[in-house]
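Encode chain A's predicted structure.
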Amino acid sequence: DLWMEDGCRRLADTSVDYTAEVHSVPPAFVTFPDDVTINTSHSLAPESGLGTPTGTAYCGTPFSILFRDAAPVLVACGRWTIARTWKIQPHYADCGEGFDAYPDSLTTTRVQVITVEDVFAPEFIETPAADQFVDFLTDYGPAVTGVPLVEDIATDPGMAALGLVSYPVHLEYADVAFAYETEPEKTCSEGLAAVTRRWTTKDNCGTAATWTQVVRVRHPRAGAGVGAGAGGGDLGNATDFQAFAVGEVYLENT
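Encoded structure for chain A:
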């Protein structure tokens, strides 16, 4: 008896008039996309510009071109590579479907490397009032004036789902300027003094964004409002008064 194995790894006994076709020529790629580098705002879909290969199969056999992505590999801070395996798979009767339905001898595979870079700083997604008053001779730190909410967001949902963001996120502040109001008639409306507070957020790779807040010291005669309708006043020389603040907030996996 003569036994033959066909492309789907089935055995047939030729002594009982069974004919098994042997497929020995695998399909081939005709064109293949280049390796690419994208940022986290880009889609991972092939049709988004990453490219799709073309191919051909022996004797005009119908075929499919499939792909499978490996898990991202961190190669540097904020930089990952994804190995995309492309496969040309012929359509033979009764071989089944799916990426692994056919033996390797009947398919052709090739790998495209996609490099993803996180080039975006964390975002200030909620902030306290950018220009606000605090009462005279009271605390004007973040516990009173508020703390921004920041998050490192990958713009494309597919990137975010893969965790391609540079955690953890750091948030810090510093009061970079302190100025007294020099015109007495404006001390009720503009405050006795104004503190410029600069907030800085950084991801784990040091990519940073800033947001500026102004905190004004309310004149004690201005009342609870901003000062509209209140009378003026001069408390005298306050240049000996010193004010400064610096601090850091540490946010992990937020």
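The two ends are 69 Å apart (CA to CA).
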